[in-house]
Write a structure and sequence with these properties.
Blueprint (H helix, E strand, L loop, with lengths): L1 E7 L2 E8 L2 E4 L2 H16 L3 H16 L3 H5 L9 E7 L6 E8 L6 E6 L13 E4 L1 E3 L5 E8 L7 E7 L9 E4 L6 E6 L10 H18 L6 E3 L10 H8 L9 E2 L9 H6 L19 E5 L2 E5 L7 H14 L7 E8 L11 H17 L3 E5 L4 E4 L1 E3 L2 E3 L3 E3 L2 E3 L5 E4 L19 E5 L5 E7 L3 E8 L5 E8 L11 E8 L3 E3 L11 E7 L4 E2 L6 E5 L4 E4 L2 E4 L6 E11 L2 E4 L3 E6 L3 E5 L4 E5 L20 E4 L2 E3 L4 E2 L3 E2 L2 E2 L12 E10 L5 E12 L1 E6 L2 E6 L13 H4 L11 E5 L1 H4 L5 E10 L8 E11 L1
Parallel strand pairs: 12-13, 13-14, 16-17, 17-18, 18-24, 30-38, 42-45
Antiparallel strand pairs: 1-2, 2-3, 4-5, 5-9, 6-7, 6-10, 8-9, 10-11, 12-26, 15-16, 19-24, 19-25, 20-21, 22-23, 26-27, 27-28, 29-31, 31-32, 33-36, 34-35, 36-37, 36-38, 39-52, 40-41, 40-46, 42-52, 43-44, 46-51, 47-50, 47-52, 48-49, 48-51
C-alpha cells in the first residue's frame, strides 16, 4: 500500500493504492475536510495544532497494510474487520472499513466441510450490508448474518456488491450448552509509545489463548482496544491479528475508546444508544449464548441511573428465559487494587451499581482499566462472603458475585499495586506480563482460568458450582465479634476525627468466616444521647463528653448472638479556618530561580503579581468545590516549553498560637504537584518524591515515578503537631511551589485552605 498526503492552497489529495485499487477524494470533498481541519485547529493552542494536523493525517493515510498486502490484486480492499457475537448463538455481527464508497457492500457465508478452503459460491447466503459513518477517506459497513447452526463449520467473505470479494475466512459454531470463551483486557495498542511492539504482544496473547482454547465460542474484551481514541493506526494494529477474523469478539468501550471512532468500527447487538452512550461512542448492549445472558455497559457514562435502567429493562425483556448464568461486563473495575482503585469515578460506580448487580443476581462481573489482576471473594452488599459449602476448593451454590479485573493483554502498560491489601481481594497480582483468561461454561459449573503469556503458566483458577439438586449446608455460626475503626467520637460535626464505623464479623464452627447480613444485626448503646444508624455512630446535639459502650446482637435463625462490647470516648471539638479557599496570593510566573529565601516569612514579595484563588490557566480550568480559575497565571509564553515551577505566597493571621490544638489539615486542588512551606519550613508535599530538593527547572515527570493524582477531585493532607508547631502569633506565610508535570502541560491550578482544631 502507498499513500500520499498533500495540503497546499486549500487543496487536499489522498491516494491510497492497495492491490491495484486507487482511491482519490474529489477536490470539493477534500476542501471540506481541509476546512473542517482548519476550523478545529483554530480552536487549539499553537503547540497542539501541529499534533492535531499530524493526527488527522495519520488517520487518513492508514489502513491495515499487512492485511491488504495479503489479498490478490482484484480483491475487495476491506480492512478493520470487526467480527462479533450476534444477539444469540444463531447470529454474527460484522463491521468493516473500505475505501470511501457509496456502495453498502455484502457478506456471504456458507456451511463447509471441515478443512475446506474454497468458498462454495453455489451454496452461499448473501446478506446486504448498510453504510455508516467512518474516518475521512473511508466508508464503514455493517451487517448481521442469521440462522447459524450449532457445531458447524462456516466460511464467510466480504464484498462490494459488484462481484469483488475478500478472501474467505473460517469460523466454527460450538455447542452453546457447554462452551468456553477467552477473556482479555486493555490491549491499549499504542500506550507504550511503540505501536508495532504493542501489536506483537497483542498477537502473541491471542495466539496463545486460541491455541489453548481452539474451540472457543468467542473472545471477550473488557475495553481499551487502543490508546489514542482517534488513531486509525492503533485501530489497524488492534485488528491485525488473524484470530480476530476467525473468532467473534465482544468488545467493551474503555476510557481510551470513548469517542465516535469506536462506533465507526464496531457493530454490537441489542444496543441501547440512549442508555450509557458517551460522546457518541455507543450505548449499553446485551447478547445471549446458550443459557448465559451477557450484559455490556459503557462505563464512561457517569450516569449510573442509565446503566441501572438498562440492566433492569434487559432483565425484564429477557425474563421469559431461565438463565443458568448471568455475566456483566464493563471497563472501569470497581474492585481492583492498582492506580485507579480509589478514584472517585470508580467508587461512585461501585456505590451505584452494586445494589442492582446484587438484585439481578449476576454470577460474575468482568472488568479491566487497572492494568493488574484481581479476583474478589464472592461479594454481596459490598461485603466479601466466605462462608460456603465446599466441594474441595470449590464453593457450592454460593451467594453473591465474583468480580474479576483482567491485566493488559498486550503488555503496553502496567500499574503498580496499592500497598495495603483490600478486604475484597482474594487474589491480587501484578506479574508484569500480559495475561488472558479461559472461561468455561457448563450447566452447573462456571470455571475461570488465568494464564500468563511468558511461561504460559496457570496463575489463578476459580470455580463455582451452581446446582439446585444439591442441598446446601454451610458451617454454623460459633462466635460474633465487634470492631470499630476509631474509639474517639466528637460532640460536633468535624473534619478531623474519622466517621466512626462499626464492623461485625462472625466465625463459623470450622474457624472460618461466617457471613452476617446487615439486616440481622441490632446495635445497642449504654447512652440514649448516642445512636447508631447503618453501622455508624452519631452523637445527639446535646450529647455530653464522657464514655459510651456499644455492642451488637445478631439474629441467626432462632438464636440471638451477643458480641463483645466496645468502649468509646466522646470528646468536645472545635475547629477554625486559618486560610480560606479563594484567598489572595502573591505569585511569580517568570520562570526565574528564586533559590530558597522565597519561602521565608520575611521575604519581600511586594513586586510579585497578586490575585485571588483559584489561580492557574486556562480560564476554564477548575476543580470540585474550589471552582474555575479566578486569576490567570502565565506559563512563559511558549506552548511547547512551559516553565516548570510557579511560586505562590499567602499571608494569614493567628491571634493566639497557644490556643491552637495539635490537629490540622490542608485541603487543596493542584495541577500537577506541590511542596508547601509554613514560615519557611516544609509541612507537606503532593505528587513529588518524599525527600529531596527540587527547583525552578524540575518537571514532576522528570523527578518522580508517582502517578499524578486524579484531576476530578480535591486532595486533603492531615498535619501533625510538629507541622503546626511552626505557627506564630501575628502574621504567618504559606509558600507553595507548584510544578508542572512536563513542558507540554496544558494547564495549571492552585488553591487551598488550612484548617486547625483548638484546645
Amino acid at each position: 500500500m502507498k499513500a500520499i498526503w498533500r495540503n497546499a492552497g486549500r487543496y487536499l489529495l489522498i491516494a491510497v493504492i492497495a492491490g491495484g485499487t486507487v482511491l482519490q477524494l474529489h477536490e470539493e470533498q477534500a476542501s471540506a475536510a481541509d476546512g473542517a481541519l482548519e476550523i478545529s485547529a483554530a480552536n487549539l493552542m499553537e503547540g497542539q495544532r501541529q499534533a492535531f494536523r499530524s493526527h488527522l493525517a495519520n488517520s487518513l493515510l492508514f489502513m491495515d497494510r499487512d492485511f491488504l498486502g495479503s489479498q490478490t490484486d482484484d480483491s475487495y480492499p476491506a480492512s478493520h474487520i470487526a467480527f462479533a457475537p450476534g444477539s444469540d448463538e444463531s447470529e454474527m455481527n460484522f463491521s468493516w472499513y473500505s475505501p470511501s464508497t457509496a456502495r453498502a457492500g455484502q457478506v456471504q457465508y456458507a456451511k463447509v466441510s471441515s478443512g475446506t478452503e474454497d468458498f462454495p459460491e453455489n451454496a452461499a447466503v448473501t446478506v446486504d450490508a448498510s453504510l455508516k459513518n467512518a474516518t475521512y477517506g473511508y466508508s464503514a459497513h455493517e451487517a448481521v448474518i442469521t440462522q447459524l447452526e450449532n457445531e458447524t463449520d462456516y466460511l464467510y467473505r466480504l464484498g462490494d456488491g459488484q462481484g469483488n470479494w475478500t478472501q474467505a475466512f473460517h469460523f466454527k459454531t460450538q455447542d452453546p450448552s457447554s462452551y468456553e470463551f477467552v477473556m482479555v483486557a486493555d490491549p491499549q495498542i499504542g500506550a507504550s509509545g511503540d505501536i508495532a511492539e504493542d501489536q506483537k504482544g497483542w498477537e502473541r496473547t491471542l495466539r496463545q489463548a486460541i491455541d489453548r482454547s481452539p474451540d472457543a465460542s468467542f473472545i471477550l474484551s473488557a475495553g481499551d482496544q487502543v490508546d489514542a481514541r482517534y488513531s486509525e493506526k492503533e485501530y489497524a494494529a488492534y485488528f491485525a491479528p488473524e484470530p480476530l477474523r476467525n473468532y467473534p469478539t465482544a468488545t467493551t468501550i474503555g476510557n481510551h475508546d470513548d469517542t465516535y471512532h469506536y462506533a465507526y468500527h464496531f457493530n454490537v447487538p441489542n444496543e441501547n444508544w440512549e442508555l450509557g452512550n458517551y460522546d457518541n461512542s455507543g450505548g449499553d448492549y446485551y447478547f445471549s449464548y446458550g443459557d448465559t445472558l451477557f450484559m455490556n455497559l459503557n462505563s464512561n457514562s457517569q450516569n449510573p441511573e442509565e446503566h441501572i435502567q438498562f440492566m433492569e429493562e434487559t432483565a425484564e425483556a429477557t425474563a421469559g428465559r431461565e438463565w443458568k448464568w448471568k455475566i456483566l461486563v464493563f471497563h472501569h473495575s470497581i474492585y481492583s487494587a492498582a492506580a485507579h482503585s480509589q478514584s472517585e469515578v470508580v467508587l461512585n460506580l461501585r456505590d451505584q451499581l452494586v445494589p442492582t448487580i446484587d438484585e439481578l443476581g449476576f454470577d460474575a462481573v468482568l472488568m479491566g482499566h487497572d492494568h493488574s489482576y484481581v479476583r474478589t471473594y464472592q461479594m454481596e452488599n459490598f461485603q466479601p462472603l466466605k462462608n460456603h459449602m465446599m466441594q474441595g476448593e470449590v464453593p457450592v451454590n454460593p451467594e453473591g458475585t465474583v468480580y474479576i479485573t483482567g491485566n493488559t493483554a498486550s503488555g503496553s502498560k502496567f500499574y503498580g499495586m496499592q500497598t495495603e491489601r483490600e478486604p475484597y481481594s482474594a487474589v491480587r497480582e501484578q506479574w508484569g506480563v500480559p495475561t488472558y483468561m479461559n472461561i468455561q461454561v457448563e450447566s452447573t459449573r462456571l470455571r475461570f482460568e488465568t494464564y500468563r503469556t511468558d511461561t504460559e503458566e496457570l496463575v489463578d483458577e476459580y470455580e463455582i458450582i451452581k446446582d439446585p439438586s444439591i442441598e446446601t449446608v454451610v458451617p454454623a455460626l460459633e462466635k460474633v465479634e465487634l470492631e470499630a475503626n476509631s474509639t474517639v467520637l466528637a460532640t460536633e460535626e468535624n473534619s478531623f476525627y474519622p466517621e466512626t464505623e462499626l464492623k461485625i464479623t462472625g466465625k463459623n464452627e470450622e474457624g472460618g468466616q461466617y457471613d452476617i447480613s446487615p439486616e440481622s444485626v441490632t446495635y445497642r448503646t449504654s447512652r440514649d444521647d448516642v445512636r447508631i444508624k447503618d453501622g455508624k455512630i452519631e452523637a445527639a446535639e446535646d450529647a455530653k463528653p464522657g464514655k459510651v459502650e456499644v455492642y451488637a446482637e445478631v439474629e441467626d435463625g432462632d438464636t440471638v448472638w451477643e458480641s463483645n462490647a466496645v468502649e468509646f470516648e466522646l470528646v468536645e471539638h472545635e475547629e477554625i479556618g486559618l486560610l480560606d479557599a479563594g484567598s489572595e496570593w502573591r505569585y511569580l510566573d517568570d520562570g526565574s530561580d528564586q533559590k530558597k529565601d522565597w519561602v521565608k516569612a520575611d521575604f519581600d514579595d511586594s513586586k510579585w503579581s497578586r490575585g485571588a484563588g483559584p489561580l492557574g490557566f486556562p480560564e476554564d480550568e477548575e476543580r470540585p468545590e474550589f471552582g474555575p480559575v479566578e486569576t490567570l497565571v502565565g506559563f512563559g509564553g511558549d506552548e511547547t516549553e512551559k516553565i516548570a515551577l510557579t511560586y505562590f505566597r499567602a499571608a494569614f493571621e493567628v491571634e493566639d498560637v497557644k490556643e491552637i490544638g495539635d490537629l490540622g489539615y490542608v485541603e487543596f486542588g493542584v495541577d500537577d504537584a506541590v511542596i508547601l512551606y509554613l514560615n519557611g519550613e516544609e509541612i507537606m508535599r503532593f505528587n513529588m518524591p518524599e525527600t529531596g530538593e527540587f527547583g525552578f527547572e524540575d518537571y514532576q515527570e522528570a523527578v518522580s515515578d508517582q502517578d499524578l493524582g486524579s484531576e476530578d477531585r480535591i486532595e486533603r493532607i492531615y498535619l501533625d503537631k510538629e507541622a503546626l508547631s511552626h505557627l506564630e502569633d501575628g502574621e504567618n506565610v504559606l509558600a507553595a511551589q507548584v510544578h508542572q508535570d512536563d513542558r507540554f502541560s496544558s494547564d495549571l491550578y492552585w488553591d487551598m485552605e488550612l484548617v486547625v482544631n483548638t484546645k
